[in-house]
């Protein structure tokens, strides 16, 4: 598979993985906030809320993709000028790109785009979803370098 196509496949896979994980983490963060208010959330309700919240994917995925395009352009520059492990830089780029975007949106637009990221825990868990996406991207696109 040509490198360009592998990069596109990697970006799509990373975006989908992160969007699903981010949605699930966000839902669980909201449920955790409810539980801290002594609201009982049965397992069936928790699962139903998690599945229902996947409806945000058509809105979330483009935002995640844009974040990743920027982050995955910066990561190779960091590798080139700072050095280090390629996978690690992409993991960091995925996390930082998402967290930074959400913080900028909150500061500029005065909104929290994703309800589950209102708390520090929620924001960090969304960053974890970005890190997972960065890892997926690095693994898929590393194959292209090995096939040469």
Question: How would you sum up this structure, described in words?
Answer:
By secondary structure, the protein is mostly helical. The chain has one domain (3-147). The chain is 82% helix and 0% strand. The protein is built from 5 helices and no strands. α1 (3-36) runs antiparallel to α5 and α4 (86-109) packs antiparallel against α5 (120-147). The chain is globular. It starts with a helix and ends with a helix. The model has no long low-confidence stretch (mean pLDDT 90).
Q: What's the gist of this structure?
A:
This protein has 148 residues and is mainly alpha-helical. The chain has helices at 3-36, 43-52, 57-81, 86-109, 120-147.
Layout of secondary structure:
Layout: H1 3-36, H2 43-52, H3 57-81, H4 86-109, H5 120-147
Helix pairs in contact: 1-2, 1-3, 1-5, 3-4, 4-5
What is the structural class?
Answer: mainly alpha
Mean pLDDT, nearest integer? 90
The count of β-strands is 0
**What would the principal axes of the Cα set say about the shape?**
globular
- Helical content band: over 70%
Number of domains: 1
> How far apart lie the N and C ends?
10 Å
- Given as residue ranges, the uncertain stretches (5+ residues, pLDDT < 50) are none
Strand proportion, as a percent range, falls in under 5%
By DSSP (H or I, 4+ residues per run), the number of helices equals 5
